[in-house]
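Weekly puzzle thread! Below is a chain. First person to post its structure in token form gets bragging rights.
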Amino acid sequence: MVGKHGVAVVGGALLLLLAPSARGEDGPRFPQPKMEQLSPEQQAVAADVLKQSSAGLGGPYGMLIKSPELLKRYLLMTEYLRQKTSLPRHLNEMAILLEARIWDAQYEWWAHEPLARKAGLSDAIINDIRNARRPASMQQDEAIVYDVVTELLNKRQLSDETFAEARQILGEQQIVDLVAVTGFYVMVSAVIIAGRVAIPNGGPAPMPVLVK
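Winning reply:
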């Protein structure tokens, strides 16, 4: 079970194994498209992707562009949850890393670890999350982010005790934005895993795989 001294993933008998490569060893199911291969509607949203994405039309976009209206709305959500959220940047990125860890979403971790570090999340916290450990040293706001995200994703609930503490430490808007970014990146992880989105250039998986 996950509690205030638990780990980021349910279970006491988890085995951590290093993955030989990123999930996607059989190749992506939606290879990165070229602009000339896209319909006019897809090209229009692809132009918006290129304004935001350092990966171009790679990563999850190769799959999402098959549903251009969905991708338009996805971009609006990512703009808010990445750039306009009320959560401090390092807490927002910590929540994304926790979700990526729990879901074994290797590409997502690969993309967000440097962003978390740039935002000021400590190497110690990043490394503990990577290895499915509750970080030994966290500030009060980091600890409540850990508790909210892991309770939601592992227990499928949020206790009254944790909610009350989150309201006191973060305030109501930040709680809402924290829950939203956690849930949204579950969807991102589902796309990454379903689409077999691999680490670019055949790079190794950045996290041990959690075998449940």
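Puzzle host: Confirmed. Bonus trivia for everyone else. The longest strand covers residues 15-18.
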